[in-house]
């Protein structure tokens, strides 16, 4: 059985090998990274946004087709008010500065989650980024923002029951989830990465990751870089994906 826990970066990444078409990342450890450096927690979130930019470009250039980043969960509202307020301002600054680079990289922005519950300035930034990049044909940068998988599944089931209660199928549920906005065949991550040493899924894409390969690293998200991504993909390239078969 492959080791899903990475304590050191692998060096056998094969750029000509299989590259996961959809990578999902639970970006964890911003606050702890800052605390270790005697900085306020929000400093970690700011540096974490710089990491998003670097990893987005790296993944796009490696041939990844969808990169889903868990940016803010439905449970994150429980954090201190000043931290939540800062996190809600980050997308405004992030997209205003990064969208021109995304356009140059031919990257398309997509967002899943309960966007209508976000502050108005955050909603505006998100919608503006999606509009400005809608014609890009390269990698999809898919942010999970104010997202929770259990609520997503519950909402999808409720929608199906209202529309066609007598014909609930796996395909219908798949089409009712938030990831239905992604291209067919690319909705389910092949590889899920979690930084910071935590080893849990945290209500992230519970339906979609049924057969995803899992990769956990001790690195905090601000320290995650292109070599870190290559190490995760190198681990993926060694896996034997049987999908319940032999």
Task: Name the descriptors.
globular, 246 residues, 7 helices, Undecaprenyl pyrophosphate synthetase, seven-stranded parallel β-sheet, alpha/beta
Question: What is shown here, in short?
Answer:
The protein is of the alpha/beta class. It contains seven helices and seven strands. It has one domain (15-148, 189-237): 3-Layer(aba) Sandwich (Undecaprenyl pyrophosphate synthetase).
Task: Give an overview in words.
- This protein has 246 residues and is α/β, with parallel strands linked by helices.
- The chain has a single domain, classed as Decaprenyl diphosphate synthase-like (Undecaprenyl pyrophosphate synthetase, 3-Layer(aba) Sandwich).
- It has seven helices and seven strands.
- A seven-stranded parallel β-sheet has the order 1-7-6-2-3-5-4, sandwiched between helices.
- Strand 4 (108-112), helix 4 (120-132) and strand 5 (140-147) form a beta-alpha-beta unit.
- The chain is globular and about 55 Å long.
- The two termini are 13 Å apart.
CATH topology: Undecaprenyl pyrophosphate synthetase
The SS-based structural class is: alpha/beta
Tally of distinct domains:
1
Distance between the termini: 13 Å
What's the Cα radius of gyration? 18 Å
Let me know the number of strands.
7
- Written as H for each helix and E for each strand, in order along the chain, the element string is EEHHEHEHEHHEEH
Extract low-pLDDT stretches: none
Proportion in helices: 40-55%
The CATH H-level superfamily is Decaprenyl diphosphate synthase-like
The number of helical segments is 7
Residue-averaged pLDDT, rounded? Answer: 92
Biggest sheet strand order reads 1-7-6-2-3-5-4
């Amino acid at each position: 059985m492959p080791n899903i826990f990475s304590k050191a970066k692998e060096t056998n990444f094969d750029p000509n090998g299989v590259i996961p078409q959809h990578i999902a990342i639970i970006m964890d450890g911003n606050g702890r990274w800052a605390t270790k450096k005697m900085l306020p927690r929000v400093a970690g979130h700011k540096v974490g946004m710089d990491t998003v930019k670097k990893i987005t470009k790296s993944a796009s250039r490696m041939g990844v087709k969808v990169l889903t980043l868990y940016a803010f969960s439905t449970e994150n509202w429980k954090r201190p008010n000043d931290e939540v307020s800062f996190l809600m301002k980050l997308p405004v600054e992030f997209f205003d500065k990064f969208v021109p680079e995304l356009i140059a990289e031919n990257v398309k922005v997509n967002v899943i989650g309960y966007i209508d519950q976000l502050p108005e300035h955050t909603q505006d930034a998100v919608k503006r980024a999606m509009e400005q990049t809608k014609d890009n044909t390269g990698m999809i940068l898919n942010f999970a923002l104010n997202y929770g998988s259990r609520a997503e599944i519950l909402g999808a089931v409720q929608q199906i029951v209202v529309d066609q209660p007598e014909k609930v199928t796996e395909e219908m549920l798949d089409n009712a989830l938030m990831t239905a906005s992604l291209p067919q065949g690319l909705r389910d991550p092949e590889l899920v990465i979690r930084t910071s040493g935590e080893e849990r899924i945290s209500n992230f894409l519970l339906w979609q990751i049924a057969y995803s390969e899992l990769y956990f690293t001790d690195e905090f998200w601000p320290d995650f870089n292109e070599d870190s991504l290559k190490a995760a993909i190198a681990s993926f390239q060694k896996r034997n994906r049987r999908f319940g078969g032999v």
